[in-house]
Specification:
single chain, alpha/beta, Rossmann fold, DNA Methylase, Chain A, domain 2, 2 domains, 8-stranded mixed sheet, 14 strands
Length: 417
């Protein structure tokens, strides 16, 4: 383990709610929590570019927006480069604190690729899919008052060791309950919290106190009518966000090659289609949009920002068809202006796409901060049941596997032969 940088904690750290971010990446969750009033004690990752981004941002002395105390991002925090499997609670505590110290919040999003529909969906057979065990181990050592866990929505139906959909989520819940924490799960869409991006992620909040906090209600809604009914704002569109950003003077990528003419003819909100395997309930075959060949609709929030250097195309304000730049993707991910990303172009897109969306982090962080003061108890509450739509997803996945599972297995064998 290597400690990249240490500084004395701010004088404020004893008064603010303290948080530790495991799997911090480039700091999407950390920056959102700090804007929500949390003080970061330590952040951990093994991605050197991401940690260099955090160090560069801290050295830039970037103020936390809206913070009355004038704090700066990551001031006083340990930035730790480590394999999480080798970490102990001592590595994460503030300097000089003994084993009785506990953070108010332990947060993190273990690697999502094992459960993501954009990956190979190997689940717990992928070593990265078992890193939540280390998350649980550190939670048992640190005894935080609250835990915040983030991952892709595919985790809801991910198959456990017994092959059953939903098995991984049950495994995670049982593990946290085994160390005395009750768990609440929900799927949150970033667009419902003011992001100009449709990004649905699974969140879990866990507590060893008197009750498990709920998640914050949405602040935005898809339609203006729904927004009026619920006294919230309409979704923020991609076009609105881009209009508020400087026009890029570099990083302009325009279409070339065999797809160029096809892309130029596509209307916004559509893309080049992919073919797929014909299955029993899909006689016409699967299809979708090529991930690298979709023209965004500026009147809607963007599609999910991925960890790839081929984001969606846009018709910009000058009538040019071009890709979203990494800076625009960072804004869609809710990073504060001035965040100092370090690395190659491919690394920047990867850091940004892998991050927790910042607007969601702010909303959840503010909500959880209100739950800390009265949440100490000697007996953990019971975990509330999963949302009903979780079971609908699990049941559909089971049914769909019965219909097409054997066919897919044969197709995989044929491809690997």
């Amino acid at each position: 383990m290597t400690v990249v940088h240490k500084r004395a904690r701010d004088a404020d750290i004893g008064r603010l709610r303290t948080s530790i971010d495991l799997f911090c990446g480039a700091g999407g969750l950390t920056s959102g929590l700090e804007r929500a009033g949390w003080s970061t004690v330590s952040v951990v990752d093994n991605d050197r570019d991401a940690l260099a981004t955090l160090e560069a941002t801290r050295c830039a002395v970037l103020p936390v927006s809206g913070d009355a105390a004038g704090r700066c991002h990551l001031a006083g925090a340990k930035i730790v480069e480590a394999d999480i499997c080798l970490l102990t609670a001592r590595d994460l505590r503030p300097d000089g604190e003994d084993a009785s110290w506990r953070p108010d919040l332990l947060a993190g999003g273990p690697p999502c690729q094992p459960f993501s529909s954009a990956g190979k969906e190997r689940g717990v057979t992928d070593p990265r899919g078992r890193l939540f065990v280390e998350f649980v181990r550190l939670a048992a050592e640190l005894r935080p008052r609250l835990i915040l866990f983030e991952n892709v929505q595919g985790l809801v139906t991910a198959r456990g060791p017994d092959g059953s959909p939903g098995g991984v989520l049950r495994l995670i819940q049982t593990a946290f309950e085994g160390i005395g924490y009750a768990c609440r799960f929900e799927l949150l869409n970033a667009a419902d919290y003011g992001a100009a991006q449709r990004r649905v992620r699974l969140l879990m909040v866990a507590s060893s106190g008197k009750e498990v906090p709920h998640f914050p209600p949405p602040t935005h809604a898809k339609s203006a009518t729904t927004a009026q009914l619920h006294y919230v704002e309409p979704w923020v569109s991609l076009g609105e966000l881009l209009d508020g950003l400087p026009y890029p003077d570099d990083d302009i990528v325009t279409p070339t090659g065999k797809y160029a003419s096809d892309l130029l003819s596509l209307p916004p909100g559509s893309g080049l289609k992919t073919g797929g395997i014909v299955e029993a309930n899909r006689p016409g075959g699967h299809w979708g949009y090529r991930q690298d060949a979709f023209v965004a609709d500026p009147t809607q929030p963007s599609r999910t920002i991925r960890a790839a250097s081929t984001p969606d195309w846009i018709w910009d304000r000058h009538g040019l068809l071009r890709r979203l730049t990494w800076r625009e993707c960072a804004a869609l991910q809710g990073f504060p202006p001035g965040w100092r990303f370090v690395g190659t172009k491919a690394s920047l897109f990867r850091q940004i796409g892998n991050a927790v969306q910042g607007d969601v982090a702010v909303s959840v962080g503010r909500h959880l901060a209100q739950s800390v003061p009265d949440n100490d108890s000697r007996q953990a509450p019971e975990s509330p049941p999963w949302p009903p739509y979780f079971f609908k997803r699990v049941n559909y996945t089971q049914m769909e596997h019965k219909v097409n599972g054997a066919h897919r297995q044969r197709a995989r064998l044929e491809r690997s032969a």
